């Protein structure tokens, strides 16, 4: 079945992914493409949204796509830069605004009987983020909304289903933003809301059957949400031809290797556990630099995987749990190089010598959608609700070099922290949590004796996608009990601290 789909053209706004999420929340499928790479089958999209941009339509940094196949031919919604772009190139006037406008504003005027604003009333809060402003609309444009400071806050082009808005309906602080997107997509553009987890599962299974036929597929299973859901989908499509490999890299959480293997047993999956702890710890011996650690782990994963794949006769495909943010993070609208903050390990990017074709059934989904898809296949909520856990595992939470003793200490500390979060009903309220072993010794006193032992940090963050995050305000009493338990029970630790840094400027992991 061909879905109704919406095209989002990205001009590099920090909010472009949010536009996609809000559209998907309406059960409408959408794709983000760079503004200068409009898909050749653009006629197959039912509506188009132009994103905002850090650039300006004035001067040299203008981003100028050819919209001749789109404009006037299908419903078009232009947000912020998009709206300025429409105005500027259709005879309007865009100028630098006297005062830059960021944050909260309220609609002070809405044109009567305007379908675009059905269900939205004067006073509605909207979120602004711009320094240019549309001083004058094109002559064929009709003003449909204003705020106190921005007269031309929304307009439509007469005779077309083309709309421009200066504010950002995609950010959650625009209170009626979801309603506005629904008005535009469902009522004006008549896009059907047919994108549901059930339909996704049915169609993916059909497509996978067709693509993979009778071929064998190997999948790296981590116990995490993404690879587990990918495994279930593939299992539905190809059954016994799916070979899952779960690697113990010696850097998993306490007892995770056995508990995850047990969890998978109940799901009917064909999972092979490979205990490669010694190989990973060897590869990491005396390495302290974070990037070198990540590289050593990535390399060892590939070696282990290569060995295992060779043991399966005639395997043709490698399946991966890649999700949408992984895909779009690597596409930059303006093509500029972005800085490497951390080399994320992935069993992806396999070297050519492995000669496997890659299949990625979740590559169009956001994390919350992956969870919904898993739920619709009846998967264990304990797997779906798990906090994300990085592939390099505890290696990037042990600052400095790694020894089996340090791994054991951190596993014990982490287990107490996570167990307590669960028993205090805090686990599901936190997006990700873990402990970090610091390369610091400090003086303490235990039973009247001087100690000189290790210090651990606890970190718990809230986030939607890991791109930005804030530390969680955990109850003092919880922190008090947890710290006490850790120091009393884990030998070698005499001090616990709590990380109160947001991302940015810190990252979630310490390495
Ligand atoms: N211990 C492991 N054994 C086998 N494959 C692994 C292991 N750790 C990671 N991988 C592979 O690396 C991929 C990337 O890991 P990542 O942590 O981003 O995703 P995930 O574990 O599936 O989900 P989550 O983000 O919820 O942890 C996984 O999908 C999996 O294919
Ligand atoms: O599979 C992974 N391989 C990695 O190399 C890796 N590094 C960080 N992470 C996870 O990504 C999210 C963002 O982490 P940072 O703020 O530390 O960059 C957080 O959820 C991290 O746990 C990784 N996941
Ligand atoms: N958020 C945006 O799209 C901003 C557009 C333009 N760069 C401005 O500052 O007005
Ligand atoms: Mg993981």
Notes on the structure:
- This protein has 511 residues and is an alpha/beta fold.
- 30% of the residues lie in helices and 25% in strands.
- It folds into three domains: 184 residues, Rossmann fold; 188 residues, HUPs (Rossmann fold, 3-Layer(aba) Sandwich), CATH 3.40.50.620; 97 residues, GMP Synthetase, Chain A, domain 3, CATH 3.30.300.
- It contains 13 helices and 18 strands.
- Strand 15 and strand 16 form a beta hairpin.
- Helix 4 packs across helix 10 and helix 5 packs across helix 10.
- It is globular.
- Bound molecules: adenosine-5'-triphosphate, xanthosine-5'-monophosphate, glutamine and magnesium ion.
- Glutamine binds next to strand 6.
């Amino acid at each position: 079945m061909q879905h109704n789909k919406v095209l989002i053209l990205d001009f590099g706004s920090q909010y472009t992914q949010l536009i996609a999420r809000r559209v998907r929340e309406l059960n409408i499928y959408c794709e983000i493409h760079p503004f200068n790479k409009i898909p050749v089958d653009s006629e197959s999209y039912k509506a188009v949204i132009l994103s905002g941009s850090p650039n300006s339509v004035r001067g040299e940094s203008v981003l100028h796509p050819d919209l001749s196949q789109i404009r006037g031919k299908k419903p078009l919604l232009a947000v912020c830069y998009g709206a300025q772009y429409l105005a500027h190139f259709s005879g309007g006037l865009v100028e630098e605004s006297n005062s830059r406008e960021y944050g909260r504003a309220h609609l002070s005027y809405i044109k009567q009987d305007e379908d675009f604003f059905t269900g939205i009333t004067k006073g509605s809060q909207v979120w602004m983020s711009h320094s240019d402003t549309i001083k004058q609309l094109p002559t064929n444009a009709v003003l449909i909304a204003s705020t106190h400071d921005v007269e031309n806050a929304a307009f439509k082009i007469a005779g077309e289903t083309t709309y421009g808005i200066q504010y950002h309906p995609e950010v959650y602080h625009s209170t009626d933003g979801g309603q506005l997107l629904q008005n535009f997509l469902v009522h004006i553009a008549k896009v059907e809301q047919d994108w549901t987890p059930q339909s996704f599962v049915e169609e993916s299974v059909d497509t996978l059957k067709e693509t993979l036929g009778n071929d064998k597929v190997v999948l790296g299973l981590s116990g995490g949400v993404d690879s587990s859901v990918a495994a279930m989908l593939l299992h539905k499509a190809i059954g016994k031809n799916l070979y899952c490999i779960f690697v113990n890299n010696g850097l998993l959480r306490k007892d995770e290797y056995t508990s995850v293997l047990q969890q998978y047993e109940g799901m009917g999956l064909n999972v092979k556990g490979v205990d490669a702890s010694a190989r990973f710890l060897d590869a990491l011996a005396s390495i302290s630099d974070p990037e070198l650690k990540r590289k050593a782990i990535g390399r060892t994963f590939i070696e282990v995987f290569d060995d295992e794949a060779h043991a399966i006769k005639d395997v043709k495909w490698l399946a991966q749990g890649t999700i949408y943010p992984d895909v779009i993070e690597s596409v930059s609208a303006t093509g500029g190089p972005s800085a490497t903050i951390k080399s994320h390990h992935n069993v992806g990017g396999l070297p050519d010598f492995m000669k496997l074709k890659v299949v990625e059934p979740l590559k169009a989904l956001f994390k919350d959608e992956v969870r919904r898809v898993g739920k619709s296949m009846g998967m264990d909520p304990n797997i779906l609700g798990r906090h994300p856990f990085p592939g390099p595992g505890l290696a990037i939470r042990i600052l400095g070099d790694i020894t089996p003793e340090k791994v054991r200490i951190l596993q014990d500390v982490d287990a107490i922290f996570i167990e307590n979060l669960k028993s205090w009903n805090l686990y599901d309220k936190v997006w990700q949590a873990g402990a970090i072993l610091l390369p610091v010794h400090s003086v303490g006193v235990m039973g009247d004796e001087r100690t000189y032992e290790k210090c651990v940090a606890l970190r718990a963050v809230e986030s939607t996608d890991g791109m930005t995050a804030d530390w969680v305000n955990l109850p003092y009493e919880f922190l008090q009990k947890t710290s006490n338990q850790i120091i009393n029970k884990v030998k070698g630790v005499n001090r616990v601290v709590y990380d109160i840094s947001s991302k940015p400027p810190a990252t979630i992991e310490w390495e």
